[in-house]
Amino acid sequence: xxxxxxxxxxxxxxxxxxxxxxxxxxxxxxxxxxxxxxxxxxxxxxxxxxxxxxxxxxxxxxxxxxxxxxxxxxxxxxxxxxxxxxxxxxxxxxxxxxxxxxxxxxxxxxxxxxxxxxxxxxxxxxxxxxxxxxxxxxxxxxxxxxxxxxxxxxxxxxxxxxxxxxxxxxxxxxxxxxxxxxxxxxxxxxxxxxxx
Length: 196
Known about the structure:
The protein is of the alpha+beta class. Helices cover about 55% and strands about 10% of the residues. β3 (about 120) and β4 (about 130-135) form a beta hairpin.
């Protein structure tokens, strides 16, 4: 949970990479990031919902994203977050997690895990609204089911082969999980803005 006194001041926020600058400097998976970015678009209904949220005085105007270029969830999720920011008109800044542990430590999954991506939403005057971590709930459930199925089909599979097979099967779910992420974030923003 975000601390009362955050490491993310308005000045610090402004130091983050734009999405384009982040992609320009990454070392691995640039083609995968670009593929997910090019293949995803926010639906007209979701665009309207995002713009309505943005117009609320307590609505999001800025989004900070923590990620790393080697992480599958980031490779799938950050391009979707960039498309959301474009649709909503948000200022999106990207911070590499491994260089910004002070920020990451404010947004640990279950108070323990440095899971990424993390998207943190702020008002225009930099009031914290909420944050979203890693992947939508449906993906959490389906990853467990995929993993269980792989182990059931081949109980002696080694970790490397297991990882390859899970990546192949989860890649087939990417578009559905991106869409579910957008819907989940919109739902959580609506809930949290109503409670501000």
